[in-house]
Please model this.
Amino acid sequence: MELQPILWVIPIAGLAAIAFAIYLAWDVLRADTGTVAMQDIAGTIYEGAVAFIRRQYQTIGILAIGGTVVIGLVITLVEGREVADTQYFGLDLGWRTGLAFLVGAACSMASGIIGMLISVKANLRTAAAAQHSLVRAVQVAMRGGAVSGFLVVALSLLGVFGIFAAFGGFTNPEEAPFLIVGFGFGASFVALFAQLGGGIYTKAADVGADLVGKVEAGIPEDDPRNAAVVADLVGDNVGDCAGRGADLFESTAAENIGAMILGVAVWRIAVELGWPNPEAWIFFPLVVRGFGLLATIVAMFFVRGREDENPMNMLNRGYWVTTLLSVAGLALTTYVMMGTGTDLPDNGIPAWVWFFGAGIVGLTTSVAFVYITQYYTAGSFRPVREIAEASKTGPATNIISGTAVGFETTAVTAITIGIALFASFTLGSQAGLINEAGDNVGGIFGTAVATMGMLMTTAFILAMDTFGPITDNAGGIAEFSKAEAKAREITDRLDAVGNTTKALTKGYAIASASLAAFLLFSAYIDKVNLILERQIDAGIREAGTLLESVDLANVNVFIAALLGAMLVYFFSSLAIRAVGTAAQAIIVEVRRQFREMPGIMDYTQRPDYARVVDITTRAALRQMILPGTVAVATPIIVGLLLGHEAVAGMLMVGTIAGVLLATVLNNGGGAWDNAKKYIESGQLKDENGIVLGKGSDAHAAAVVGDTVGDPFKDTAGPSLHVLVKLLATITLVLAPLFIR
Amino acid sequence: MELQPILWVIPIAGLAAIAFAIYLAWDVLRADTGTVAMQDIAGTIYEGAVAFIRRQYQTIGILAIGGTVVIGLVITLVEGREVADTQYFGLDLGWRTGLAFLVGAACSMASGIIGMLISVKANLRTAAAAQHSLVRAVQVAMRGGAVSGFLVVALSLLGVFGIFAAFGGFTNPEEAPFLIVGFGFGASFVALFAQLGGGIYTKAADVGADLVGKVEAGIPEDDPRNAAVVADLVGDNVGDCAGRGADLFESTAAENIGAMILGVAVWRIAVELGWPNPEAWIFFPLVVRGFGLLATIVAMFFVRGREDENPMNMLNRGYWVTTLLSVAGLALTTYVMMGTGTDLPDNGIPAWVWFFGAGIVGLTTSVAFVYITQYYTAGSFRPVREIAEASKTGPATNIISGTAVGFETTAVTAITIGIALFASFTLGSQAGLINEAGDNVGGIFGTAVATMGMLMTTAFILAMDTFGPITDNAGGIAEFSKAEAKAREITDRLDAVGNTTKALTKGYAIASASLAAFLLFSAYIDKVNLILERQIDAGIREAGTLLESVDLANVNVFIAALLGAMLVYFFSSLAIRAVGTAAQAIIVEVRRQFREMPGIMDYTQRPDYARVVDITTRAALRQMILPGTVAVATPIIVGLLLGHEAVAGMLMVGTIAGVLLATVLNNGGGAWDNAKKYIESGQLKDENGIVLGKGSDAHAAAVVGDTVGDPFKDTAGPSLHVLVKLLATITLVLAPLFIR
Model:
């Protein structure tokens, strides 16, 4: 097989991104580390974060090794039903899947750990830079975040590419995509526990610190006398930073593999019709993501500006450069990989143009979600103002109003996703990819291209996201170390921008999960039919029993769909409750410190920060096990009881329900948060025009809403993103088990 | 056609129930009407209720007449695509559907209006009876409620039977079920606006009265100085009583019609195989419901007890008598109607036994939901205690905990429904109902029989439900009229029982909606295929294009499913927001009265109750239009854009999402309510064993949760029940419009 030179983009972009991440890490680490007081508190945060990460990834590592063995055994045992005809590394399918799972898990863990270690170094350096220059502080924070962004995307790209090559991607490109689904499952598995553990940690610390400090002891937020405050700062890193990194690692990996599986259907047509480079359709997702990485590297140099500029503008400049260069990369990739030698469809416009259009739909969707999220969660628009107004009549009306806003956000989300799916499907189905049986596979491939278009900007989005916890921490360090006013003023401005970027990433993650849902669902059907075909060929199954449709009118499918929709509520319930339980442990410990160490209150005794960090760590890790187990076990049980068609219904309806509930939780939480900030900034006035600011009853009501929103938007919501993709990868991997 | 004598049960039971309702109404009206003070306030409530009902049903009546014309025109216009071969009343299908719609709407309105008028008479008489005897008070309240219960079920039975007979049910029983779907749509249409308007009214008045009275002016709940308190008492009647009546009217009607449509498939087999009385399979739902009515009449005489007994026991006694007699009626009906002359299935057990089993599954499911609801919303169990405990750390943790409980309740709900569907489907499919093409239609008919079994107890459940607002009002009247202590003590006990029965009915309504979902969905597919078959026969459609499956892997079906799940959130958002907007109008008016009528506070001036009632009425009616329109328009738009298969996906996934969200809202709201009551009853203690009762911070936090739960459980949740069934009836009626 003669390969197109454009495939070189994959390793080159992946390695370039890693090299660039190393350069950025070096650049961050060499920066000024500020005053001794800053270094002191930063050191404490660093230690806490490392302690948590060590324990958490030990736990996850053990679970992952257990998972590898179970998957290897199970797939090997049921493999008698499938007919494996290719062997790599002398392993049969079960152990190959297990190995892919382990590599996926390891890559995800590596990118999470390294990225987070840099982040907890970047926070101190951002605080230090803030003493002198806004632009420099933005650059340090953004570069620190970009280390995560580049590592996550590059390791996911190189990991998928590597395992694909190792399992025969260059010799049997039509087989290999099915052999590497374990990689996506490994990534999802790690992401589930990373996001759950981190999400529970961060919000338990946040809620615990607020309740025991602000409410009970009556001391301000971020006060050094409150031993839970350091745990709170640690939490920002392990939840927002490591959690979201793992989330987007699995997104890029799973969606990439799903798109490659759909590419196999196009490969068949290309082979039938004798087009050159049929394997291009399978390699396409890897190449286009490579161009996305290159675009992001260039864009990093555009994150700059004037000292008096809104920092958000500097980030936006980089984002737009990434997007525009991605459009160029997309055009080049579609032209080179889909433009040569394909037959012209009846409409006379070549296939690559249609797929370029589909990719543009994906890029546009991600931009649309950025603005939708801003509208619903930023202070200057109707929804947040409405919640702030409702706070005037107390916490109850604040909560009712925030719930109504959260529910409302599903409308524009669902409609946007619906339009994006419809548009990319329609564009793809014009491309003339019709197989001998007369099926048009272009539509589904169009949704895959749209998803890949969207994923081109992931590294930049993730850098902006990690910018959030870094600047949040920098603010905490400045506060804690009693830094000069200028530094605090700059870190406050960065913190506000960080809140926006964190919300945007959640919108982006949701959009990619929903766009990918249809694609992964189709990949599942392709995988099931591949197994069924082999069983039919081997004579152990009747002909004509392929999975032609997932029929909601089948009672088993309906029941599975009902259980899928239920799962997202039940899982969220467990995640939310876990925060409460873990927070309780923190409150008890801080109360004990206040009681037994009377010197804390007059600053003569240093609170035992490490003990609270340790207690939070243990509580968070204990609490992540139940929701994690429920998430993994439910699809398996449903699949075993109700079969392979039913589990597809569960996957599909569970995804729809999960995406919408996550939207409600993320946007409702974000709007509550910003309604509080809106009031704090003095924008709410009573009927006589008097400002209702900090300390007013309306502000107290808004604080209740903010606290309620915390576990919604930072624990349950993000964990749902992961759950949705876990459903897809677990069913893809365990499909042989569910076939009846 | 020679008809079975058992069919006489239908008119006899229907007319007997109406006669019994008249007797009960007479019995209630002749009861003692208490003191002048009681009559005074009761008169004010009565006037307010009548004023609201008049305006509301005028609005609904106009909408219904408009709906009739639109449906008549639309179906007539698209009928060219269907081939109507039977004409009744000289009308074509369009106008027959319109007429059925109008009759359904009129029956629903009549039962709602009459039932509510008796309820607002029964409240005064319950308060009067409470001066002397607990048992007598229970009986007056229960009989007042039973007037609604019997009227709703009897009018739905006689209405469906009458329009069925009028459209040729005795001559063409296999055609007529499809011609009467308009009746169900009419009932849903009225229910949607009755529940929305009533739900918004009752909670706007409740929230408004609390905020302006308890929070702002610092006067107690139900204080006569607060002009909104009368509106609150009126609201109990128009929301809980008229709203739930309309809800269950449409349930019984729509599910009955759906079951008859599925009966047609069995009728075909019975004709094929030459079984006697093939029409029995179509008439079965009507007959079994007739027996349910008779069982309920008998059971009413068992609602009695000792003066020192828990009133809940008296109601439970009646409920169990209804259930046991229903089992007997079910056995008789299945034996007579399904036991004669059918071929024995291979398993050797006759068909009627299997369907008797399926009916038992339905009855058992309704009992299971009664206990599940009690567990999640009653004070003595873990969930409510958990919320009460969380109230110790303030309103935020109260809300977080209640949300977690609400989400959690979906698990047991979905699993119970899943088991019920699976069991009734499996039992039905053993009955040997296999047509010539080899399809086993017994499974789906099994789910229909289960639904009918469940509906046998509807009249008693509805009587218990209406017991709630009557006793709630009786308590308010006793409070307002400063009745003696004994009367207040008895009305308090009744009120507590009424809160439980209101929660139980919601559980029952949800269970019936979910069990019926699958049945109505199958009826939709049957209806679509009937139209498609006729088009194929008429040569205007290709053969082989029947709707064989609703395929989630079809992109249009997926998009419609996503929009269906979104609709339930968006609709709930509008309903919740409507309560806030209407409450705001009430608050402004009461504030004005406090300001401009200074005599109110020292009891020298009577507040203007009527004006608040009027303002609430207008606000509620204005606010119900937007959510109502969204509910009706969305399925139509989706059907027109995406076609008949997609709209089936929307119906199914919308139903799943709606049932689960309603579960969350109802149970979450109920649990918050009872957590407050748990604290008020002095059961919550701090770590030192000191009671945290009324007036404590924990109580204040629990009041916030209760207020948040109000619009969830009494406006949005119940409106979702209606929405779910509206989706089913609107798609059934407008199916011809969506076919492509």
Summary: Residues 286 and 550 of chain A are 29 Å apart (CA to CA). Chain A is about 80% helix and 0% strand.
